[in-house]
Predict the structure.
Amino acid sequence: MRIRNSVKAIIIQEGKLLCNKNRDKRGVFYCVPGGGQEYQENLRDALIRECLEEISVAVEVGEMLFVRDYIGRNHNGQARLQRVHQVEFFFNCQIAENVVPQMGTGPDHYQIGVEWVPLEELDQRQFYPKDMIKWLLDLSNDNRPVYLGDMD
């Protein structure tokens, strides 16, 4: 098996996080837009492409905020995820205020929409990665970790 690199956009406006709304057999869940890095593509270009595909918006990519490992065998997820090892790079991103994100032409397999979720409601939703919520609520904390480790 190989390790897959993935890029993710953290887009916050007026106290709300832009999320992909997804549905699988377990129900509705949320995650930030982004996806896999392609061969010979830098992380910033990958994130711009993924956001155009998923939320129909060209993002301005800012600083890297977090790095997360997801090692499937360490979590009680679905059987298909047990063999996955993904390294995710989360970037602070901006979009123009007058732009309305919507489903793009290349959404994720489970994606059913795009939604602005109030930050204070993230822990009431099926948001992934759930352990990152505390850091999203306090991005100005100079003591926040960049490397989050292996989390579900």
Summary: The mean pLDDT is 93.
